Amino acid sequence: MTALKTAAGGQGAPARGVLWRVELAETVKLATPMAATQLGQIAMMTTDLALLGRLGDHVVAGAALAHTVLFAAYTLGMGLVAAVAPLASQAFGARQPRFVRRSVRVGVWAALLAGVPLTALQLWGEDVLLALGQPADSAELAGRYLLGLSWCLVPSWIFIALRNFMSALNRPEPALWITLAAIPLNGLIAYGLIHGAFGLPRLDILGAGLATTTVNIVMCAAAIWFAYTRHPFKKYRVLGRFWRFDWPLFGQLLRVGLPISGAFLLEFGLFAAAALLMGRIGTTALAAHAIALQTAAILYMVPFGISLAATVRVGQAVGRRDAPGTRRAGLAAVGLAAAFMAAMTLAVILTRHIVPLLFLGSGAAGAGDTVALAATLLVLGATFSITDGIQSVAAGALRGLNDTRVPLLIAVLSFWGVGFTMSYALGFPLGLGAVGVWIGLSIGTGVFALLLLWRFGALTRAGYMPEPPGTP
After folding, report:
1. I need a surface site. Which of 68, 346, 394, 405 has the fewest CB within 10 A?
2. Would you say the C-alpha torsion 356, 360, 362, 364 has a positive or negative sign?
């Protein structure tokens, strides 16, 4: 509101153009550290993949399968703690600090309750992959990786819950600082445990998993320290009376968060299915797919950060009962993401023959087929990357409205009714192989993006406002 008054010169209602400029500026201000935080987190994964790539493309393929198993569980918990963002943002906009605290507390409870069974499930990752028809050597490597990687779930979810709390207060910077510090720490520990450097045992792929878990525990501890010792977070006492279970708000978190988890799982399930299809085509296809998908994931982190900002901005407008503000917040974020992804996609196309070498390193000399196929998939991912960024931000804006059930149904139609069907048909019956699988992915995400934009436009044109935080 202060920004609006300043922009208007303190006289009357701000002009429409001023409102849009202010909204865009506020979105950029909030999204920049959030996107940087997401890039930092993917940088840690990319570091692991690059270090493992020096051990051969068969290790890259095993790591890709391990991530497939882990992220099936990770996305389930991430959807639950993602609900902290709209609930806390709406409470902050409505100036209800008690509901801000309660929203964070139930998010942490959700992380703990989901974490125990889902962590245990990872220990059977090799058996799951073998049952799905994956090569025995790749499944064995994936299972070894998961022995160290699986324990990162709970601390990473709690970190996300606390990061969402900080962002809801318009203070996302501490999460960025923590992540930036974690990147070199992860690289050093991973290198040491993979290769037996710095006096550490040589554990190869297992060491990379243990490094990720260790760093996630450190990040979680640092976020708790910020929440309890630094202004303005400490006054909320977010984990105060933690033992008192808040059933009403926990139920509201489940109503918002479970459909988010479902949509995440459907989206991730599509990419997991694509990885399994690639595994049936061959190790070269799977390794090339992993490289191209990891590159797309790096680009995706910026619109994903913008989507987090969209959830906060829309949620705060909901808390203020500002219907026009919800529409401006969502559409400004979508436009910002589309412009960024268009520019980055062009850069990837121009460097498509260089990008695979960053992952394979010295092993690239003996992996010419992998490099060539990865370069082709990067070009095919151009449309995919733009639509994937748009759908992420549109979904984030809808989460700010607590609208998560209809997007879940849209995800079923888009990702599986369209995306998987096209990927399988183009890849196998029509004989396009890995290229066909990626064309199917692009079509599925495009349909999802268009339908989510339609949904957000319809709701905001009608002036839709969800119930205030804490309403049963």
Report:
1. 346
2. negative
Tokens of 11: 């006289």
**Rounded CA Rg of the chain:** 22
Whole-structure pTM value = 0.85
- 461 vs 330: CA distance, rounded Å: 12
Cα–Cα distance, 459 to 436 (Å, whole number): 35
Distance separating alpha carbons of residues 331 and 268, to the nearest angstrom? 25
Count of all residues that appear for the chain in the document: 472
Contact residues for 93 (Cβ-Cβ < 8 A; gap 6+): 315, 316, 317, 318, 319, 320
pLDDT in tens, 271-318: 878 888 888 888 788 888 888 887 887 788 889 999 999 999 999 999
